[in-house]
Write a structure and sequence with these properties.
Length: about 425
């Protein structure tokens, strides 16, 4: 952040320097209007303090020159003066001074800065990249300079094809597009194309339109632009609109992530990442109603690790946890995406086998027993017992009933010596 202080008095230069030091400004001190103009041509300053009486001009004349010129003509200018003549002070404001700060009331400058800082681009916490589709290099370069001040890097595309090419290789926080382009292309087409792709549905799009074309602006918004800005573009308006777009999008992204995290917490078992018992219950309700309604087969496997207590006792709880995680991963890989695998608690897992009759379910479970026996998680031979049961198409059965039958089958598998499958019809 740069500040320009035009003050002929070394004493006041020192006072202002001390005061502004806390703001981390890059301060330039000069003692005449001529040197002030030169400094403004050399660098972009975020605000200017100018004394009322300078060796070459008055502060009021300095203001007039800046406001009527083309270099940083919207910069906030504070006239710092001991002058109390109301007419003179009023003419300073008319000339374009942002505010008058009396030298016996310098803390007011700090207050003014506090209200000013929210207006400047430096208050925006923006970073990342923007893409600008614009067929004029001059306009693109000018915009690039503005976006840099805001903290955004800009890639420029002359055509829609070029923009798509850049989009394939870069991630953009913001896409800006001019509406009228060359070769019969329009920004409206580009916006529509972007919005038809899932990955760009959330990306903020800012349309740049000419001031008079109200229809174009409406069309841009209807096509999916989030906002528009009219040419000639005012810096502060551009900064504010870009900031709004990017920060709202970040908020949406943050909420989506948070929602996803809460969903995971509510539906997943934290140790294995498999679905938890609660979620399985909810899914099972829907699956059973659907299967019954459409006369589709549905099976349930209840899987329990054999002698898991011994593993814990012999190798410790942490090793026991690792065995659970390893078996859970194997279960996840063993079944289709359409089958739900859940950790029901402790060392017990449940699988909902979609559109599967009892015999294929039993067969899958037998293969699973073999696979897990060979897995040797943590170098420990681990086996499982499995109970299988299926929805009886003759009766309207619910998950609880089929689960109870599979659990009974599991009990029999344990009784029969473990490491085996028992399937129960009734
Ligand atoms: N490491 C670990 N152990 C668990 C966890 N949840 C439950 N257990 C242990 O799992 C063991 C289950 O023991 P039991 O119900 O007696 O069953 P088992 O030793 O597998 O014997 P069978 O089922 O009859 O073959 C207990 O020692 C529990 O402490 C867990 O999250 N991590």
């Amino acid at each position: 952040m740069r500040a320009l202080i035009i003050e002929p008095s070394p004493t006041y230069q020192r006072i202002l320097s001390r005061m502004l030091d806390t703001y981390d400004f890059d301060m330039t001190f000069v003692d005449s209007a001529t040197a002030g103009f030169r400094a403004m041509r050399e660098h972009h300053h975020q605000f200017v303090c100018v004394a009322m009486y300078l060796p070459d001009l008055t502060g009021i004349e300095f203001c007039q020159h800046i406001r009527q010129g083309s270099i940083n003509n919207e910069v906030p200018i504070f006239i710092v003066t001991s002058e109390s003549n109301p007419e003179l002070l009023s003419s300073a404001l008319t000339a374009g001074a942002t505010d008058i700060i009396r030298k016996d009331d310098l803390p007011r400058l700090e207050e003014a800065l506090h209200t000013l800082i929210p207006l400047g681009p430096f208050r925006y916490n923006i970073s990342g990249k923007a893409l600008y589709l614009e067929d004029s290099l001059t306009v693109a370069n000018a915009t690039d300079a503005k976006l840099k001040r805001l903290g955004l890097q800009m890639d420029h595309a002359f055509s829609i094809a070029e923009a798509h090419h850049l989009l394939q290789h870069n991630k953009y926080e913001l896409i800006m597009t001019d509406i009228v382009l060359q070769a019969n292309e329009t920004g409206i087409d580009f916006i529509k194309q972007l919005r038809s792709e899932t990955r760009f549905q959330q990306t903020p799009i800012l349309a740049v339109t000419s001031l008079e074309s109200i229809n174009r602006r409406i069309q841009a918004l209807q096509s999916g632009a989030n906002d528009y800005i009219s040419k000639p573009v005012l810096d502060e308006e551009l900064f504010a609109r870009i900031n709004n777009l990017i920060s709202s999008n970040r908020l949406v992204e943050q909420l989506t992530r948070e929602r996803q995290r809460l969903l995971e917490l509510a539906t997943k078992d934290h140790l294995t990442g498999l679905y938890n018992r609660h979620f399985m219950g909810e899914v099972a309700k829907r699956r059973f109603a659907e299967a019954y309604r459409n006369h589709l087969p549905l099976s349930v496997l209840v899987i329990d690790i054999d002698h898991f207590k011994q593993i814990n006792d012999q190798y410790g709880h942490q090793t026991g946890d690792n065995v659970l995680k390893c078996l859970a991963e194997a279960l996840r890989q063993q079944f289709n995406d359409d089958d739900y695998v859940a950790r029901f608690g402790g060392e017990e897992f449940v699988v909902l086998l979609n559109q599967t009759e009892l015999e294929p379910a039993r067969h899958k479970a037998a293969l699973l027993c073999q696979t897990l026996q060979q897995l040797k998680p943590e170098n420990i031979i681990t086996t499982v017992s499995v109970g299988a049961a299926s929805l009886n198409p003759a009766q309207q059965e619910y998950f609880d009933e089929v689960f109870a039958r599979a659990d009974k089958a599991l009990y029999q598998a344990k009784q029969n010596g473990r490491n085996q499958v028992v399937a129960l019809v009734e």
